[in-house]
Design goal:
429 residues; 12% strand; globular
Length: 429
């Protein structure tokens, strides 16, 4: 196409006359509100264009054959790359390879993987919530001068402090294009948090905007592919309100953006924040959303293991072959969704063995392994662990071999279980 032909082609897409739209915008008065109504021709160029019934309309076989013939598409060649075009394939391929858009090769860049320590530290307490533990882990990372800490970018829609990011922000600062001092400190208003803004800040404060949070996480989570510099985005929000940005989260995962969503409070235990902030439907989101590994730990030592796994998991390049035997995507990686709790519970005193770590990230482990004659298995997830442990103790008075299964990820437990069944059916075990 010459410039004039290309202009006519590209300004008449989908039934809109873009030149007319631009002229109308330019002619609109600037001193009062203006409403623009664009009459789009739905299905432009097709036999049923502009028809009120065409929202889900399909062409008949005869109409499709006529359309195929007008486009010079041979039967059986519908998916050939250059089918219907008059110029030879070699000439077209040479032209496309030489245009500036393609001249430098792949436009998806790569970035080195950031080393993650084998264990993430935190200051333990006898009673803690997983949300508190999350803040402590990030605080320990913020204190260090590691590449991992330097690459983490946190973001939150107006719940920075209540999702325990305060200590991280105090040490790492808020991001802004220009430096700006903490207004509260300037006005001598008491606060335990220091909110200085600068281009070096590693936290982005969004205000009440969950949709914006997921759009931002999507952009940050593609930085390695678009900019050639790896970031490790961590976004926090209240779990029930994940649905406010669900569309953006869905598309972020389909773009293969890599990030960690930390949502709280979760589960059926009523949180101090009240019933409006209680989440019970969100586990289905975590299990159903492709490209998103969902976890709901009960204890902080579990959370530390999962966070360590998550920082490594979101850096996988996505190009390895996924294992047909487990469906956990550990070879390809993805994003991670952590459902945490504000309920402080008694923490177990135990050695974190390699086997236990693997079971935690795979989705479940036996807190009390059942015997061969087990009558009852109790399975729990999240902050109702104390009730499950208490129930086991009561039932053990008159029953033997009772098992207690701690489910750290219903998502990955289900994926592994389903894959194992399928593998057995196909003789892959």
């Amino acid at each position: 196409h010459n410039d004039a032909d290309l202009g006519r082609l590209m300004t008449n897409l989908g039934g809109h006359d873009l030149e007319l739209i631009l002229e109308t915008f330019a002619a609109a008065p600037a001193d009062k509100p203006v409403c623009f109504i664009a009459y789009t021709i739905k299905g432009v160029g097709l036999p049923f264009q502009g028809h009120k019934d065409n929202h889900a309309g399909l062409m008949t076989v005869a109409q499709m054959e006529k359309w195929r013939a007008t486009q010079n598409i041979r039967p059986g060649h519908e998916w050939d790359k250059f089918e219907g075009l008059a110029k030879p394939q070699g000439e077209l391929e040479a032209f496309l390879a030489a245009v500036p858009f393609n001249r430098e090769g792949r436009r998806r860049l790569t970035a080195p993987v950031i080393d993650v320590p084998q264990q993430l530290a935190f200051k333990p307490a006898a009673q803690m919530s997983t949300q508190q533990g999350f803040g402590l882990v990030l605080h320990e990372l913020a204190r260090g001068d590691t590449e991992l800490a330097a690459r983490i970018v946190t973001a939150s829609p107006d719940v920075t402090v209540s999702t325990n990011l305060g200590a991280w922000v105090n040490r790492r600062g808020l991001f802004a294009k220009a430096e700006n001092a903490d207004l509260f400190r300037q006005e001598k208003i008491p606060s335990t948090f220091n909110w200085d803004y600068s281009p070096k800040g590693q936290h982005i404060e969004l205000g009440i905007a969950e949709m914006n949070l997921f759009v931002l996480l999507s952009a940050l989570g593609l930085s390695h592919a678009i900019n050639g510099a790896r970031l490790l985005p961590v976004g926090t929000l209240y779990d029930p309100f994940i649905a406010r940005g669900l569309d953006a989260l869905n598309y972020a995962c389909y773009q293969d953006a890599r990030f960690i969503v930390v949502a709280t409070p979760s589960g059926i235990t009523l949180a101090p924040e009240g019933g409006a902030h209680q989440s019970i439907a969100q586990p289905l989101i975590g299990m159903a959303q492709d490209g998103l590994a969902s976890f709901e730990p009960a204890f902080v030592d579990e959370l530390a293991v999962i966070l360590r796994f998550a920082f490594d998991y979101i850096q996988k390049d996505g190009e390895a072959a996924a294992s047909e035997k487990n469906w956990l995507r550990d070879e390809t990686g993805g994003s991670v969704y952590l459902r945490l709790s504000t309920r402080p519970i008694e923490q177990p005193q135990r050695a974190m063995t390699d086997e236990l770590k693997q079971n935690i990230v795979d989705g479940a482990y036996w807190m009390r392994k059942p015997g061969p004659n087990a009558q009852v298995i109790v399975a729990y997830t999240g902050a109702i662990a104390p009730e499950a442990i208490q129930a086991i103790g009561l039932m053990a008075e008159d029953r033997r071999d009772i098992g207690l299964l701690a489910v750290t990820s219903a998502d990955r437990l289900n994926a592994g279980w389903t894959a194992a069944q399928r593998a057995r059916e196909r003789g892959l075990t």
